[in-house]
Prior knowledge:
Elements: H1 10-38, E1 51-53, E2 59-61, E3 71-77, H2 88-98, H3 101-104, E4 109-114, H4 118-128, E5 135-137, H5 143-146, E6 160-166, E7 169-175, H6 195-200
Parallel strand pairs: 3-4, 4-5
Antiparallel strand pairs: 1-2, 3-6, 6-7
Amino acid sequence: MPICLPNESAEYRRARNALLAAELDLRAKTEEVAALRRTLPLGGEIPEDYAFRSLTNETVHLSSLFGKSDTLIVYSLMYGPSATAPCPMCSAFLDGLNSQVEHVTQKVSLAVVAQNTPEKLTALKDDMGWNALPLYSALGTSYQSDYLAQSDDGSQLPILNVFQRNAAGIYHFWSSEMFFEPSEWQPRHVDAAWPLWNLLDFTPAGRDEFMPPLR
Length: 215
């Protein structure tokens, strides 16, 4: 069934149909990549059961974060011990994720870790209104450096990792390694999970040079 919108020109419809064909190709490629991701062989077993700390300063091992699911998503927030504020881009990403926690955790488990104290993370969670995000301190562990979220000089990096659990142990599944691949664009390594950029891509100006501030 042909699509037609009020008062559009024939020129617009021809261009829009060409764009639609490209969008359909992109959708097919997205599905192809997702299927390839699901066929990844078992990744490396975690070197240790990292002892994170909850916001109430209790020890919480990575293994316990799985709950009833055998899949765990962990996002590393850029907020190191010497930072006066978290990364605005990470915070914008987590703003969107906060509203999806109840939905996501129907299928998988989710955690956000940062190389900072439980006290500072508690204050941040309250300030940002992150009422659903499960935040944990990775301070004192090697998790961030082991899983690409901290550079050799101590700089924090915004990496998303996925782990899977089976009867033999806990293994790495996938990480947003596209962050480390140079391109003419921003890293865009977690954009598929970030509504902000996808919505802006629908508009005439696109993303332009917009950078969300820390609100």
